[in-house]
Amino acid sequence: MILREMLVDDLDQVMEIEQDLFHVPWTKEGFFTFLTRDDAMFLVVEEKEKILGYCGLLMVLDEGDITNVAVRRDRQKEGIGAFLMQSLIRLAAEREVTTIHLEVRVGNETAIRLYERMGFTGDGIRKAYYSDPVEDALLMTRHPVEDALLMTRHPE
Questions:
Q1: Averaged pLDDT for residues 51-69
Q2: How far apart are CA 125 and CA 64, in angstroms?
Q3: Which chain regions cross the lipid bilayer (predicted)?
Q4: How far apart are CA 98 and CA 27, in angstroms?
Q5: What is the pLDDT at residue 151?
Q6: Half-sphere exposure of 68 (CA within 13 A, CB side)
Q7: Summary count for the chain: helices (H), strands (E)
Q8: Stretch 77-92: mean pLDDT, rounded?
Q9: SS3 15
Q10: How far from 51 is each of 27, 44, 65, 71, 110, CA to CA, in Å?
Q11: Cβ–Cβ under 8 Å, residues 136 and 125
Protein backbone atom coordinates (compact mmCIF):
# COMPACT_ATOMS: atom_id res chain seq x y z
CA MET A 1 0.00 0.00 0.00
CA ILE A 2 1.16 3.49 -0.84
CA LEU A 3 0.12 6.64 1.01
CA ARG A 4 0.27 9.87 -0.98
CA GLU A 5 -1.48 13.16 -1.54
CA MET A 6 -4.68 13.00 -3.57
CA LEU A 7 -4.34 14.17 -7.16
CA VAL A 8 -6.95 15.47 -9.59
CA ASP A 9 -6.39 12.27 -11.59
CA ASP A 10 -7.66 10.28 -8.57
CA LEU A 11 -11.10 11.88 -8.56
CA ASP A 12 -12.88 9.29 -10.72
CA GLN A 13 -11.90 6.49 -8.32
CA VAL A 14 -12.53 8.66 -5.26
CA MET A 15 -16.01 9.50 -6.53
CA GLU A 16 -16.84 5.79 -6.92
CA ILE A 17 -16.04 5.24 -3.24
CA GLU A 18 -17.75 8.46 -2.15
CA GLN A 19 -20.98 7.64 -3.99
CA ASP A 20 -21.01 4.06 -2.71
CA LEU A 21 -20.52 4.97 0.96
CA PHE A 22 -22.36 8.25 1.53
CA HIS A 23 -26.06 9.08 1.18
CA VAL A 24 -25.16 12.69 0.36
CA PRO A 25 -21.79 12.42 -1.39
CA TRP A 26 -19.44 15.26 -2.14
CA THR A 27 -19.29 16.29 -5.78
CA LYS A 28 -16.25 15.90 -7.98
CA GLU A 29 -16.13 19.69 -8.22
CA GLY A 30 -16.17 19.92 -4.42
CA PHE A 31 -13.11 17.70 -4.14
CA PHE A 32 -11.39 19.56 -6.97
CA THR A 33 -11.90 22.91 -5.21
CA PHE A 34 -10.20 21.64 -2.06
CA LEU A 35 -7.33 19.98 -3.93
CA THR A 36 -6.25 23.40 -5.21
CA ARG A 37 -6.15 25.05 -1.76
CA ASP A 38 -3.04 25.46 0.39
CA ASP A 39 -5.07 25.08 3.60
CA ALA A 40 -6.33 21.61 2.68
CA MET A 41 -4.64 18.21 2.80
CA PHE A 42 -6.20 15.18 1.12
CA LEU A 43 -4.53 11.77 1.24
CA VAL A 44 -5.17 8.49 -0.55
CA VAL A 45 -4.01 4.94 0.02
CA GLU A 46 -3.55 2.97 -3.16
CA GLU A 47 -2.53 -0.53 -4.12
CA LYS A 48 -1.65 -1.44 -7.70
CA GLU A 49 -2.99 1.94 -8.89
CA LYS A 50 -6.36 1.31 -7.22
CA ILE A 51 -7.53 3.82 -4.58
CA LEU A 52 -8.49 1.93 -1.42
CA GLY A 53 -9.37 4.91 0.75
CA TYR A 54 -8.96 8.61 1.31
CA CYS A 55 -9.26 11.33 3.93
CA GLY A 56 -9.13 15.10 4.07
CA LEU A 57 -8.30 17.90 6.46
CA LEU A 58 -8.97 21.64 6.26
CA MET A 59 -6.59 23.76 8.29
CA VAL A 60 -6.97 27.21 9.86
CA LEU A 61 -3.97 28.40 11.86
CA ASP A 62 -3.24 25.63 14.42
CA GLU A 63 -6.59 23.81 14.06
CA GLY A 64 -7.88 21.31 11.54
CA ASP A 65 -11.25 19.89 10.60
CA ILE A 66 -11.41 16.39 9.12
CA THR A 67 -13.75 16.55 6.15
CA ASN A 68 -14.05 12.85 5.32
CA VAL A 69 -12.54 9.44 5.89
CA ALA A 70 -13.57 6.65 3.54
CA VAL A 71 -12.39 3.14 2.69
CA ARG A 72 -13.72 0.99 -0.15
CA ARG A 73 -16.48 -1.26 1.16
CA ASP A 74 -14.62 -4.44 0.05
CA ARG A 75 -11.42 -3.38 1.89
CA GLN A 76 -12.87 -2.24 5.21
CA LYS A 77 -11.74 -3.87 8.47
CA GLU A 78 -8.16 -4.21 7.20
CA GLY A 79 -6.71 -1.25 9.13
CA ILE A 80 -6.71 1.11 6.15
CA GLY A 81 -8.87 3.69 7.94
CA ALA A 82 -6.57 3.63 10.98
CA PHE A 83 -3.52 3.98 8.72
CA LEU A 84 -5.10 6.98 6.96
CA MET A 85 -6.01 8.63 10.28
CA GLN A 86 -2.56 8.05 11.82
CA SER A 87 -0.93 9.47 8.70
CA LEU A 88 -3.23 12.48 8.60
CA ILE A 89 -2.60 13.24 12.30
CA ARG A 90 1.18 12.93 11.83
CA LEU A 91 1.23 15.16 8.73
CA ALA A 92 -1.05 17.70 10.43
CA ALA A 93 1.36 17.87 13.39
CA GLU A 94 4.22 18.52 10.95
CA ARG A 95 2.21 21.55 9.79
CA GLU A 96 1.82 22.64 13.43
CA VAL A 97 -1.88 21.74 13.62
CA THR A 98 -2.39 21.12 17.34
CA THR A 99 -6.14 20.51 17.52
CA ILE A 100 -8.23 18.42 15.13
CA HIS A 101 -12.04 18.34 15.00
CA LEU A 102 -14.48 16.05 13.22
CA GLU A 103 -18.16 15.12 13.05
CA VAL A 104 -19.43 11.56 12.81
CA ARG A 105 -22.92 10.05 12.70
CA VAL A 106 -23.89 8.99 16.23
CA GLY A 107 -24.90 5.60 14.81
CA ASN A 108 -21.53 4.96 13.16
CA GLU A 109 -20.07 2.98 16.06
CA THR A 110 -17.20 1.55 14.00
CA ALA A 111 -15.94 5.02 13.08
CA ILE A 112 -16.43 6.34 16.62
CA ARG A 113 -14.32 3.47 18.03
CA LEU A 114 -11.60 4.21 15.45
CA TYR A 115 -11.57 7.90 16.34
CA GLU A 116 -11.44 7.13 20.07
CA ARG A 117 -8.44 4.83 19.47
CA MET A 118 -6.80 7.77 17.66
CA GLY A 119 -7.20 9.98 20.75
CA PHE A 120 -10.42 11.82 19.86
CA THR A 121 -12.96 12.53 22.57
CA GLY A 122 -16.61 13.48 22.21
CA ASP A 123 -17.44 17.05 23.07
CA GLY A 124 -20.92 17.71 21.77
CA ILE A 125 -23.86 16.79 19.58
CA ARG A 126 -25.21 18.57 16.52
CA LYS A 127 -28.90 17.73 16.28
CA ALA A 128 -30.14 16.51 12.88
CA TYR A 129 -26.79 17.37 11.27
CA TYR A 130 -27.00 14.58 8.69
CA SER A 131 -29.78 13.96 6.20
CA ASP A 132 -30.98 10.89 4.31
CA PRO A 133 -31.46 9.55 6.95
CA VAL A 134 -31.66 12.39 9.46
CA GLU A 135 -29.21 11.72 12.28
CA ASP A 136 -27.30 13.64 14.93
CA ALA A 137 -23.56 14.22 14.64
CA LEU A 138 -21.15 13.51 17.46
CA LEU A 139 -18.51 16.24 17.61
CA MET A 140 -15.07 14.93 18.49
CA THR A 141 -11.73 16.66 19.12
CA ARG A 142 -8.13 15.54 19.42
CA HIS A 143 -5.48 17.64 21.14
CA PRO A 144 -2.13 16.15 19.98
CA VAL A 145 -0.03 18.56 22.08
CA GLU A 146 -1.80 17.43 25.26
CA ASP A 147 -1.42 13.79 24.18
CA ALA A 148 2.32 14.30 23.71
CA LEU A 149 2.63 15.88 27.16
CA LEU A 150 0.77 12.99 28.76
CA MET A 151 3.00 10.47 27.02
CA THR A 152 6.22 12.16 28.28
CA ARG A 153 5.19 12.22 31.95
CA HIS A 154 6.62 9.50 34.14
CA PRO A 155 4.57 7.96 36.96
CA GLU A 156 5.81 8.96 40.39
A1: 96
A2: 18
A3: none
A4: 29
A5: 46
A6: 22
A7: 5, 7
A8: 94
A9: helix
A10: 17, 7, 22, 9, 21
A11: yes
Q: How many CA atoms lie within 13 A of 20 on its CB side?
A: 15
Do 82 and 89 form a contact (C-beta atoms < 8 A)?
no
Residue of 17, 21, 67 whose CA lies nearest to 42? 67
Q: Is the bond preceding 155 in cis, omega lying within 30 degrees of 0?
A: no
Residue 155, pLDDT > 70, answer no
Phi and psi dihedrals of 103, rounded to 5? -120, 145
Q: Over the stretch 96-108, which tens digit does the pLDDT of each residue have?
A: 998 999 999 999 9
DSSP state of 75: G
Cα 98 to Cα 63: distance, rounded to the nearest angstrom? 6
Q: What is the mean pLDDT of the chain?
A: 90
Alpha helices in the chain (DSSP H): 11-21, 28-35, 80-94, 109-117, 144-152
- Can you give the pLDDT at residue 144? 65
Active site residues: 103, 115
